[in-house]
TrEMBL record:
Residues the entry annotates as binding substrate: R194, V195, G196, D197, T217, G218, H219, G220
Keywords from the named record: Autocatalytic cleavage, Hydrolase, Protease
InterPro entries linked to this entry: ASRGL1_meta, Ntn_hydrolases_N, Peptidase_T2
Reactions mediated catalytically: Cleavage of a beta-linked Asp residue from the N-terminus of a polypeptide; L-asparagine + H2O = L-aspartate + NH4(+)
Catalytic site: T166 (nucleophile)
Protein name: Isoaspartyl peptidase/L-asparaginase
Domain of life from the UniProt record: Eukaryota
GO molecular function: asparaginase activity; beta-aspartyl-peptidase activity
Natural source organism: Cynoglossus semilaevis (Tongue sole)
A family per Pfam: Asparaginase_2
Length: 308
């Protein structure tokens, strides 16, 4: 059966507060549509995942781009990765402050960087990526959460597990090329300069045409211990996308007590959106259908052309 092409996105593993759940689900649905339009038009999986992730970075409902959580000093520092399964090329940025779409910068790193430039910001300027004032990426909600987590006794990791919002996408195009992209503001009230799992190859994402592609979300320090994306692809060499995703997440839970979520595609167009957290907004576009959900076991389907 010909399943190609497909695009799957996530809006972060955790617990989405009731008042934000609708925005979170409608955001992943529109990002999936935006990325899938590229695949439908014959575009590449890399173009599609970057478009879908940039769409969510522009949406203040998520912890990526505009809406990112703040570090302990109350500043934005964002991480992103892209990986292309054909040549195993990748690009990543970490702790970038004044670009609206870190995922586009990560893509440029993959496409253009031969030797590492002195700093991400200089590279952005060289590539003609316009700077935005970091303040323009800070929302009232992220400032409120930052302040709350400065209070004595606050536990930012626990609080973040409650409300995440990292974004990611995986896709397979008509040629059977797979790609992944992930973007995040990181962990709430993180140390200045922290580099999380997202920009680390094999942790925040991995893509290999021979096996598939994965984008991950969850507590980065824990994801890195099990290199979650690569672990899932290892299981995919033996099994299907859902089983492999569940096995990777189950190992992370039993071995290091970590919760998280993933979106996964196989090179034939099989896909999965799986999580061990209470919720993860996700959406998948394939053929004429848009699939989406928020809670474990939830799976709604509508026509891809239905605007609602
Ligand atoms: N993995 C991200 C980080 O630790 C956070 C998340 O996925 O919500 O930076």
């Amino acid at each position: 059966m010909d399943l190609l092409p497909v695009l799957v996105v996530h809006g972060g593993a955790g617990t989405v507060p009731r008042e934000r759940s609708e925005q979170s689900v409608s955001g992943v649905r529109s990002a999936a549509r935006a990325g899938y339009a590229i695949l439908r038009g014959g575009g590449s999986s890399m173009d599609a995942v970057v478009e879908a992730v940039a769409h969510m970075e522009d949406n203040p409902s998520y912890n990526a781009g505009c809406g990112s959580v703040l570090n302990v000093k109350g500043e934005i520092e964002m991480d992103a990765i892209v990986m292309d399964g054909k040549a195993l090329g990748s690009g990543a940025v970490s702790a970038v402050r004044n670009v609206a779409n870190p995922v586009r910068l990560a893509r440029l790193v993959m496409d253009k960087v031969v030797f590492y430039p002195p700093c991400g910001q200089c590279f952005a300027q060289e590539m003609g990526i316009s700077e935005v004032p970091p303040e323009s990426l800070v929302t009232e909600y992220s400032r409120m959460r930052w302040k709350k987590n400065l209070e004595p006794g606050a536990n930012p990791v626990e609080s973040q597990m409650g409300k995440m919002g990292t974004v990611g996408a995986v896709a397979v195009d008509r040629e059977g090329n797979v790609a992944c992209a992930t973007s995040t503001g990181g962990m709430l009230n993180k140390m200045e300069g922290r580099v999380g799992d997202t920009p680390c190859i094999g942790s925040g994402g991995y893509a290999d045409n021979q096996v598939g592609a994965v984008s991950t979300t969850g507590h980065g320090e824990v994801i890195m211990k099990v290199t979650l994306a690569r672990l899932i692809l290892f299981h995919m060499e033996q099994g299907d996308t859902k089983e492999a995703s569940d096995m990777g997440l189950a190992y992370m839970k039993s071995r290091v007590d970590g919760l998280g979520g993933v979106v996964t595609v196989g090179p034939q167009g099989n896909w999965a959106a799986r999580f061990s957290s209470l919720q993860m907004a996700w959406a998948a576009a394939q053929k004429d259908s848009l699939h989406y959900g928020l809670y474990a076991g939830e799976h709604f389907t509508q026509s891809i052309d239905d605007p609602h």
